[in-house]
Amino acid sequence: MQLDQVNVIGLRTVTAALLPVLRDAARAHGWASILTLTSTAGHSSYPGGGGYNAAKFAARAVTEVLRLELAGEPIRVMEVA
Fold first, then answer.
1. Cβ neighbours of residue 62 under 8 Å, at least 6 residues apart?
2. Phi first, then psi: what are they for 45, rounded to 5°?
3. Residue 28's beta-bridge partner residues?
């Protein structure tokens, strides 16, 4: 698997696998958190950054969608670039 695939597919796969555990933790403790480490390369493109920029833009999108999908649940979704 290439690095850009790990940045996107890995994020999605691990999050999907752990989401039931996070939901259980949120029920037991009142809250849970998901923290995604991205990059400023996901906010602004630069020459030569095609694959990396695309992967980080996609990681941001996955995080934003997750935040929308978990709205109303006691799971905080955060991103650090």
1. 8, 11, 12, 15, 36
2. -85, 160
3. none
Question: DSSP 3-state assignment of 32?
Answer: strand
CA distance 24 to 7: 26
pLDDT at 4 over 70: no
Given the residues 4, 52, 67, 73, select the one marked as catalytic. Answer: 52
**Cβ–Cβ < 8 Å for 55, 33:** no
- CA distance linking residue 12 with residue 64, whole number of Å: 12
Q: Which residues pair with 79 in a beta bridge?
A: 36
pLDDT confidence bin for 41, thresholds 50/70/90: very high
Mean pLDDT of the chain, nearest integer: 92
Q: Which two tokens stand for residue 69?
A: 């999908």
Active site residue 52: yes
